[in-house]
Amino acid sequence: MEIVFRYLAVVYLVLQLPLEVKTAPLRGCDGCDTGRCENVTLVQESCPEAQLVLDTCGCCTICGSRFGEPCGGAYGYLGTCEYDLKCTVHPSEYLNGVNISGICTRAVCRKNCTKRARDRVCGNDGMWYRNICALRQSKFCKGTKVSEADSEVCGRGL
C-alpha cells in the first residue's frame, strides 16, 4: 500500500511541475547538443531571482533550484540546486535505486579533504584540481561556480 501511495505522490508531483520540466530537459546525458538548450537570455528572464546553473549533464544553462525547493529526480527533472546548495535526498526517496526527489539544502564546507583520491580532475573553469575533493572544496568553501568537466577543457596542464 505504501508503494502505491508513493507512486501516486510522484505522479502528482510530476503533474504539478510544468516550470521545472521546462527548465531541466527530460533526457539522459547522451552527449551535449547545445542546439537543444534554451537561449540563455530567455532562461535568465524566466528566473530573475535564481542563479543560472548547468543542468545535470553539464550542458545547458537552466534556472537553479533555490533553498528548500525540489531537486534531483531521474535525469534531474526536478532541477539542479544553485551553486552554494546541494541536493539532499532522504534514503526513503529512492524507488528501485533511482532518486525520486530531493530538497536543496545548504552545502557543508569541510576545511580538510577527507578523501585520499589522487586522480586530478578538470574544472569547467579550465583549472586542474588535485582531486574531486579539492574541486568541491573550491566550490562550496570559496563560493566558486566550478564543476567537473572533460579534461579537454583544461588541456594538458602540468
Automatic annotation (TrEMBL):
* Subcellular location(s) per record: Secreted
- The stretch of residues making up the signal peptide is 1-23
Example GO CC term: the record gives: extracellular space
SUPFAM superfamilies reported for this sequence: Growth factor receptor domain, Kazal-type serine protease inhibitors
Has keyword Protease?
Answer: yes
Asked if the Swiss-Prot or TrEMBL record annotates the protein with the keyword Protease, the reply is yes
Q: Which Pfam families match?
A: IGFBP, Kazal_2
List the InterPro entries hit by this protein, alphabetically: Growth_fac_rcpt_cys_sf, IGFBP-like, IGFBP_rP_mac25, Kazal_dom, Kazal_dom_sf
Protein name per its UniProtKB record: Serine protease HTRA1A
Q: What is the lineage of its organism?
A: Eukaryota, Metazoa, Porifera, Demospongiae, Heteroscleromorpha
